[in-house]
Write a structure and sequence with these properties.
Elements lengths: L1 H13 L3 H6 L8 E6 L1 H9 L7 H8 L2 E9 L3 H14 L4 E3 L1 E2 L3 E2 L4 E6 L2 E8 L8 E10 L1 H13 L1
Antiparallel strand pairs: 1-2, 2-8, 3-6, 4-5, 6-7, 7-8
Length: 158
């Protein structure tokens, strides 16, 4: 029985998303919080009335997203960011820097986890900005490269 449990335990641990790994060992009283926006909430947001009428594009973009976990911290932003990027780098077996069409990397801000050729997770570590604090956005699901490209182009427009 123990021989069967070890592979299952190893698989379960490797299937955890980045947010779970990062938050492991932190208590609720820490300065780091994690919220999860699950499929039901995403569906509710997309089905609500949108005065600007752009729900179709949003619905299409979020179609493959299973969940979004947002990690934030108000203090020690620089140290938390360094910790998050360090964890991603140490987990190179699972995560790799995102490259647009195999060319340009986005430094240490965008990381993906692939299962075969499918992108199963996208981790965005916001650039250091001590006035806004520390932010990580962790998308899981069947993530289309077009979704990532859309996020990048929106970010470059600002």
């Amino acid at each position: 029985m123990a021989a069967v449990m070890l592979p299952l335990t190893t698989w379960a641990q490797s299937a955890q998303d980045f947010a779970s790994h990062f938050m492991r060992g932190r208590d609720n009283g820490s300065n780091v919080k994690c919220i999860t926006v699950g499929p039901k909430m995403i569906s509710t947001m997309l089905s609500s009335e949108n005065p600007s009428g752009d729900t179709a594009g949003l619905r299409e973009a979020l179609e493959g997203i299973k969940s979004l976990r947002i990690i934030s911290g108000t203090t020690e932003a620089s140290a938390l960011r360094k910790e998050a990027v360090g964890l991603l780098k140490r987990s190179r077996r699972h995560y790799s820097p995102y490259k647009e069409n195999g060319k340009q990397t986005y430094g240490d801000c965008l990381w993906t986890r692939q299962i075969g050729k499918r992108i199963a997770e996208l981790v965005y570590v916001a650039p250091e900005n001590t006035s806004k604090g520390f932010v990580v956005m962790d998308f899981t699901g069947n993530i289309d490269p077009g979704f990532i490209e859309g996020l990048i182009s929106k970010g470059q427009q600002k």
